[in-house]
Amino acid sequence: MATASGPATPESDVLISVVLPVYGVEEFLRPCLDAILAQPFTRFEVIAVDDASPDGCPEILDEYARRDPRIRVLHLADNVGLGDARNTGFEQARGDYVWFLDSDDWIADGSLAAIAPRLEASHPDVLFLDYARSLPEGTIEPNPRAHLLREPTPPDTFDLAARPSVLELMMTAWNKVIRRDFLATLDVRFGRGLYEDLPVTYPILLAAERIALLDQVCYFYRERRAGAITTTVSDRHFDVFDQYEKIFAFLDAHGDAFDAFRIPLFDRAMWHYTTIIDDPSRVPPHRRREFFHRMAAHFIRYRPAGYAFPAGARGAKFRLVARDDYRLYTALRPVNRLRLQARRSAATTKRAARTTVRRARAVPSFLYYELQRRLPLDDHLAVYAAYWYRGYSCNPRAIYERARELAPDIRGVWIVREDAVASLPPGVDFAVEGSRSALRHLARAKYLVNNVNFPHTIAKRPGSVHLQTLHGTPLKVMGLDQERYPIGAKGMNFTRLREHSARWDFLLSTNPHSSDTWQRVYPGSYELLEYGYPRNDRYFTADPEEIAAIRKGLGIAEGQTAILYAPTHREYADVGPLLDPDRLAAALGPDHVLMLRSHYYDADGKQPQSGGGRVLDVSKHPVVEDLCLAADVLVTDYSSIMFDYADLDRPIVVYAPDWQTYRTTRGVTFDLMEQPPGAVATTEEDLTRVLSSGEANDEAAQRARAAFRRRFCTFDDGHAAERVVRRVFLGQDPAGREGVPHVDDLGS
User: Fold this and answer.
1) Average pLDDT score over the chain
2) Which residues pair with 94 in a beta bridge?
3) Which is more confident, 145 or 294?
4) What is the DSSP-derived secondary structure letter of residue 232?
5) Cβ within 8 Å of residue 648, ≥6 positions away
6) Rounded to 5, what percent of the chain is helix, strand, coil?
7) Is the distance from CB of 121 to CB of 193 less than 8 angstroms?
């Protein structure tokens, strides 16, 4: 951070007018004036506008004016506000350039001596200056966007089209020196109320033919502990809408001259609005809903053609603003920042202590793993895992079982959590997560098979083979696409994600939609295996006797219609139950039984019932394929289970009470409402009617299901596991998919 002090420079012919509005800053006014008058560069004038200040400021101004003729004082009879005080001072300015200062701040030593030569040499319309922030505790904090003033090295002057990044600099008056004639001709004025800078600062950048940058701290912005009008709870924050309306009116008044900047200016406006409403110290609580609706109205009114939502948290917010969804926006708004700041120091200390302890405990395990990693790979060892070591399931299970038949010389070991050991079938070799046995197997195994990523600490060894199966056709966005939907990406490290996908050797796909998606969101040099999902093989091989045994074991009476309800997890809010299972079961009558399968993130620990009840909680049932085989009808919302269940060609009902919210916050790869696998219900009453009336499997539902199967059941045929084992473990080129129906025959 440069502070610009040094020897005096030769006087310039440039005259700089310093416009200084003054109100209620008695404590800071003398230091401000002293910093100006102490400048070695002397060709300046100060137009001090006393905005009817109620304290000792008028007397201080008069005192300084008597001492130095370069200071002219304008005493206003009434308080007009910062914007009009600046307008009044500008009208009296006689300089070649104007610098609007705030009277509770100060300028750096030698700043005018640095500014004047630059003005004289470049003749810019607008000169941007660097600044630093003076914090209440006395420390100085540099401008976080200072790099924009120097990187890349700017030309002497430029216009906004050549360097649009200047829009990311603070849009205040005090970090700019403006050519007076240019500003006068432009005919813009500072606004009334808060955020008064905006109707000037944005238009001058649009209209300027010559913009220059000065990479030198010339201004110190004083951040006060209390009393700053922009950080005080007040109805005045609504003024921001009037200020941006002036900016959009300026755009309209100039026809298409500045159309190229409508999108970035609109984006900045929406960012500014959301910044204000997200700050609990600004808009009064009882008026936040009104403020939000004004935001939404501006979004609709001013959204330019071609505008696309930005990535990340900003994009998620903007989508809710566009929908005028205040309820959900409020639910997702970060926790009160003031309370977070109050707890931050203690929390940081605790986290640091926990991290230190955790790292200390991990040292022996790390050393043991590193030692094992120096030993040769075991060509006859495969390690399997699923769902972050939750148990024995999914595609890895199906591959493991088939490998035991086709590649018996390759020993398979499962890594599971300690609480999952009891659920393992007899004869399954395992190691508990974090144990030395698990670390040894992970370090030595040639083959690693998982439906999620192994921890980053598990290295990719030369000669090892990583098979990533994933665990569902993507309706919701996945991988790198989640950067645009941060609500579903909490805790994700996208750099790590890229590193993980780069170590995959094989990636499994079950349909062309998945293939296209995986290759886009999981970049890597892996071989894409379009073999189908091994876990779905059972849907083609299970016979009626097996299905009957499963139903009996679940407590489904003969002749009952079994409905499997399997909703997905929702990251965006604690929405509570989306339907009442008991009420639905009662409405359907005794010839129906409802199996409730909660997402593993939401399962409440209940064990599946085995009696003849009308509602069976099967959330902990270890094999979801059994549940699908037992079900006559699937009811789901946005879970990938629908793509697997479609292999059975049985009725599927989409229960979507919050589709618009889900697609906006979580992100989806296609419009499920336009391409559903069957009937769609949006309320519990609709769902009851669909299930009881036969609509779930009427002609329209069958047509929808057939189209869905043609698109998403492409590679499943009952032989996926065999193909995987032959290609990955045996190095064979597997035969073509046996029995794969032609696309025209699916669902017929």
Assistant:
1) 87
2) none
3) 294
4) S
5) 539, 628, 629
6) 45, 15, 40
7) no
The verdict on 600 and 453 lying in the same domain is no
Distances (CA, A) of 529 to 16, 445, 723: 70, 21, 9
8 Å CB contact between 505 and 382: no
State pTM to two decimals: 0.55
Structure tokens of 400? 């493991």
Q: 243 or 484: which carries more pLDDT confidence?
A: 243
Beta bridge partners of 615: 594
The residue written with tokens 């790198």 in the block is 480
Note the pLDDT tens digit of each residue in 694-703: 999 999 999 9
Please say whether the dihedral angle defined by the alpha carbons of residues 583, 584, 590 and 594, taken in this order, is positive or negative: negative
Same domain, 218 and 138: yes
Pairing relationship of beta strands 106-107 and 211-222 according to DSSP bridges: antiparallel
Domain count, the chain: 3
Element (H, E) at 182: helix 180-186
For 406-460, the pLDDT digits (tens) are 999 999 999 999 999 999 999 999 999 999 999 999 999 999 999 999 998 898 9
Q: What torsion, rounded to 10 degrees, do the Cα atoms 47, 50, 55, 60 define?
A: 30
Q: What is the mean pLDDT of residues 493-502?
A: 85
Instruction: Find the domain containing 170 and state its range.
Output: 1-226
Side chain identity at residue 264, one-letter code: P
Residues 6+ apart with CB under 8 A from 159: 208, 209, 210, 211
Tell whether the model's pLDDT for residue 491 goes beyond 90: no
